Automatic annotation (TrEMBL):
Region (Disordered): 13-49
Descriptive protein name: Uncharacterized protein
Amino acid sequence: MCVLLASCTADDPLGSPPPSVSGPITTSLSTGITDTGDSETETGEDGRDLTSDCDPLADLLTECGPNQACDVETLECVPATGSASVDEACADTSECAPGLVCADQRCQTLCDPSVEGDDECADGRICTYADEPLPGLCAEPCELVTQACSIAGDACNRGLGPGPEPVAVCTVNPGAGVEGDACQLDGDCFPGYLCTPAQLHTSPCAGDADFCCTPICDLLILPCFGLEPNCYPIGIEGQDSAGYCGVF
């Protein structure tokens, strides 16, 4: 039996959040590339056809040649003169070192989250699905309860990675929604809150929205209180007791 002021585990844990809730991890892509409409064949220093489709996830030297990168929107080889490294600020991809893209105003590493078990991200980062046309981005892992991210303005939210379960990664977090506020993504909520289904809450979401923000909880160290007494675990590896507050 659950006590109102105690944290209780749901009989039927929710498992993975809907894709529309955890969502892609990036909100804006800046390529700095302008389509001039010129379809004439362009060749590189080694005679390579730079206008044929390239693979942004493949070896750049093989795909495009020296001092070139593969534009993720046009899939064409473009000059690469940038030098900014991972997590450094950027206005567009031309400022980033070859192989990086400018997403959410900082240089980030591309990856393919559809390949489970592929360890293509460095420094322990996790390959997480991103907004089109990006295949995926390497994101900093984090713990939902502690919300410790290395970049100011980020929050620890759910993401979709190679496996069937959600992952916890640091994402750009412009939102300030708190308990009951309508949302579409975790990033719409204030750090420490997640975007959750309305039917799991005592009161309707603001504006009768389908999803609203609710506090993150932990079955062991950060229980739920008041009208939302139950902590729903969401199945993140290594954070089995972490979830969000709701009711049966």
